[in-house]
């Protein structure tokens, strides 16, 4: 297990604050979340999260929050999206993806992601 990157944390914090406010229940989980693993798919990345035992669930919430971000690359690689999956009241995993089958950059996100979101977070109940 390893810590979340600063960029991953910032992306998730932004989505959670927009969806649940500055004192939302998932921010406590985010503060202690660790990475079980990262899987690069060629056009994206899956970041599997682990919340330590003893951290309270936020009811039985099952939802996804999505946010798009600009990059420092030219079109068509100028936009990427992220979706945060919440399952049974816990942060479960973060998915990063490109649009139009564009290759996910090999460089660390900190070097190419513009950290200002371009689309409002979406909350989708399941």
Report what the structure shows.
The protein is α+β, with helices and mostly antiparallel strands and about 130 residues long. It has one domain. It contains two helices and eight strands. It has helices at about 5-20, 25-30, and strands at about 1-5, 35-40, 45-50, 65-70, 80-85, 90-100, 115, 120-125. Strands 1, 2, 3, 4, 5, 6, 7 and 8 form an eight-stranded antiparallel sheet that branches. The radius of gyration is 14 Å and the shape is globular. The N and C termini lie far apart (about 30 Å). The relative contact order is 0.24. Residues about 120-125 have low confidence and may be disordered.
SSE map:
Elements: E1 2-3, H1 6-20, H2 25-32, E2 34-40, E3 44-50, E4 63-71, E5 79-87, E6 90-98, E7 113-117, E8 122-125
Helix pairs in contact: 1-2
| Average predicted local confidence, pLDDT | 92
Q: How many structural units, i.e. domains?
A: 1
Tally of DSSP β-strands: 8
Work out the helicity level.
10-25%
Q: State the low-pLDDT regions, or none.
A: 120-126
The helix/strand order is EHHEEEEEEE
Distance between the termini: 29 Å
> How would you sum up the global shape?
globular
The number of helical segments is 2
Strand content: 35-45%
C-alpha Rg, in Å? Answer: 14 Å
Structural class call reads alpha+beta
The largest β sheet comes out as:
8 strands, antiparallel
Q: What's the short story on this structure?
A:
This protein is of the alpha+beta class. It has helices at about 5-20, 25-30; strands at about 1-5, 35-40, 45-50, 65-70, 80-85, 90-100, 115, 120-125.
